[in-house]
Amino acid sequence: MPRLVLTVIGDDRSGLVEALANVVTAHGGNWERSQMTELAGKFAGIVVVSVPSERVDELTGSLRELDGLLEVSAHPGAEAPPPAPAREHRTLTIDLVGNDHPGIVHDVSAVLARHGLSIVTIETTTREAPMAGGRLFEAHVVVSIPHGTEVAEIRADLERLATELLVDLDVSEQ
């Protein structure tokens, strides 16, 4: 069964997920996976749906009915879920907190790219610093570590970066 990756964005208000789910269900689609959130007054997300092949065009056409409520784009996805990662693949979890300033995500992702690591998930936020004033930046990053990759080198590079950026860093391997 074909899978579609839907990207959605709209002004945040109640009923948006229901409206999208109604269109998917009305066309025989199955909501498989999603990540959605409110960001700066907008509701944004990514949804993976599977739909019978004979109804793909019908579903994608019907998504236009949501115009004015949600902007939805449909992209073809892999027909079958990817195989589960092999046991030799491990993950590295990186938690970072520090004063907010431009370039933190760039600097962290550059270290990960240099080591050939793939980001599985990244969640970032900013919030008021309770005692010091200003804003704090927080990141939670999970990366896949290929077999044979030396974690100590990655950890050392991330710790050097944390010192340069003046942020607290916690790195743990699973």
UniProtKB/TrEMBL annotation:
Matching PROSITE patterns: ACT
Domain ACT: 5-77, 93-172
Top-level taxon of origin: Bacteria
GO terms for biological process, alphabetical: regulation of DNA-templated transcription
Membrane-spanning segments: none
Pfam families listed in its UniProt record: ACT_6
SUPFAM superfamilies for the chain: ACT-like
InterPro entries given in the database record: ACT-like_dom_sf, ACT_dom, GcvR, UPF0237/GcvR_regulator
Protein name: Amino acid-binding ACT domain protein
